[in-house]
Amino acid sequence: MTNFEFRYASNPKDAAKYNTEELREQFLIDKLFVENQIQLTYSMYDRYIVGGAMPVGKSLPLETIPYLKSENFLDRRELGVINVGGKGTVSVDGEVYVLDKKEALYVGKGAKEVLFSSTDAANPALFYINSAPAHKHFPNKRVTKENAEIVHLGEEKFANKRIINKLIVNSVVETCQLQMGLTELLEGNIWNTMPSHTHNRRMEAYFYFDLEAPQTICHFMGEPQNTRHIFMQNNQAVLSPEWSIHSGAGTANYSFIWGMAGENLDYGDMDIVAPNELK
């Protein structure tokens, strides 16, 4: 079963006037994993799709949705999958890829059948999904931490010491525009993407996970001189427009997945905002 919803893009002047409920309604994706369902959110930010699949005891097919107006989901799109649960498999046109927790799979444009399965129904896989339009086929590729590009950033004195695992990025996998990676905050560190930044040539989505209950994460967004915040729970995602900062702080350490799409594949193309310049 596939459930889906649609989100329009928001003008920054309008978003600055949103109250808490409106802000969450426009940007927060609060339910990604439902047993034996695929949850999808189609966003008008670069026509990006954010979703989750939780197969328990049966395989879940990635079905097309009306917004795509295509016979198959990937007729004109590419797909990134990162498993954040128990071991599982993704079958792409009959070829099976095994994904442990925090391993990724890139699926190129044109694949007809994609099936998500869990190895153990008692410990199901949780497949986090990002998809963007594509105009060329690139080969499917499984990416583990062994062949990811890994960067250590931050300092304990600033509570932002973290490990960035670049999984589906142009230095590791050929893609049209989709870029994805996984950042792990070390114990005692809570700040991600600080100093903050914007990048006008691509949007982004953040997915927060491995947050100990009942802790919370405060996701900061908005224009650098006119910021807003959204409190989030474990296994929730948030859309980040190209005009918005995207930073966060938790009441405990956590991991998060960043996914991007737009006209630029350069990870380092960003406009940094110093912490003391934020308002």
From TrEMBL:
**Highest taxon of the source?**
Bacteria
Q: Which UniProt keywords apply?
A: Isomerase, Metal-binding, Zinc
- Pathway(s) where this gene product acts: Glycan metabolism; pectin degradation; 2-dehydro-3-deoxy-D-gluconate from pectin: step 4/5
Q: For this protein, what is the EC number? A: 5.3.1.17
Q: What is the cofactor note?
A: Binds 1 zinc ion per subunit.
Entry cofactors: Zn(2+)
UniProt: Zn(2+) binding residues: H197, H199, E204, H246
- GO MF entries: 4-deoxy-L-threo-5-hexosulose-uronate ketol-isomerase activity; zinc ion binding
Q: Where are the transmembrane segments?
A: none
One Pfam family name is: KduI
Record field: catalytic activity: 5-dehydro-4-deoxy-D-glucuronate = 3-deoxy-D-glycero-2,5-hexodiulosonate
Q: Name one GO biological process term.
A: D-galacturonate catabolic process
The EC class name is: isomerase
Q: Does the keyword Zinc apply?
A: yes
Functional summary from the UniProt entry? Catalyzes the isomerization of 5-dehydro-4-deoxy-D-glucuronate to 3-deoxy-D-glycero-2,5-hexodiulosonate.
The family line of this record is: Belongs to the KduI family.
The molecule here is called: 4-deoxy-L-threo-5-hexosulose-uronate ketol-isomerase
Q: Which gene encodes it?
A: kduI
